Fold each of these.
Amino acid sequence: YNLRVARPEGRVNYYVDANTYNVVATKAIVVTGGQTAEVNAKFADFKPVEGVVMPHTLEMMVPGAPSAITV
């Protein structure tokens, strides 16, 4: 699923897995200081933590960064 949320400071698309309902990615269009930027994130390695399924891997693609940041 693709859930689109529009707010005054920008727009965010949440990509949700249809089978697990986990948010597997986001794409945010944000405006800050008069500049528009697109920030993408991918979530993976989902595991339960105290009964709540959480991603244990986050990969972010940020404008100006030489490559993706993986946490």
Note: Strands lie at 2-7, 10-16, 23-32, 35-49, 52-61, 69-70.
Amino acid sequence: KLHPEFERVSNIIKSIKTDVEISSNQNSPRSGAFEVSIDDKLIFSKFQLGRFPTEDEIKVGFNQYDIFKPP
């Protein structure tokens, strides 16, 4: 079963950008890592901050990489 915060953040990301790939490690041992990357650029790391991102942090990260602009 996925961590509730993983599901919360995944749903936020999907509501912002529908054509994203979200994956998780289902195999033991799991490290507890949670990272958001865009084009191989890390925009959030749970390891660095010790917590999951807020909705505002996700939106700011996406805005930095022009995610809201059409291709």
Note: The chain has three helices and two strands.
Amino acid sequence: TATVSGGTTKSMDWTRANGPDAGKTMLAVYAFRGPDEYVVVFAPAGKDRPKELDAKAGTGHTMHVWKRAKS
């Protein structure tokens, strides 16, 4: 588990249904940052789970930040 400002991240295992790594599991950490933002960081298939909620150059990690649209 990684620590992030405002709390602790949770982990998930995600198996791709299609694409170049179909059938392979990617390990990830995620957190909700407030009521309107969700952040998830995936490690490449076959690699260790990320230790922090960041995708630094050279790690191969992919970071997604989802923000609720204001209406």
Note: The longest strand covers residues 25-32.
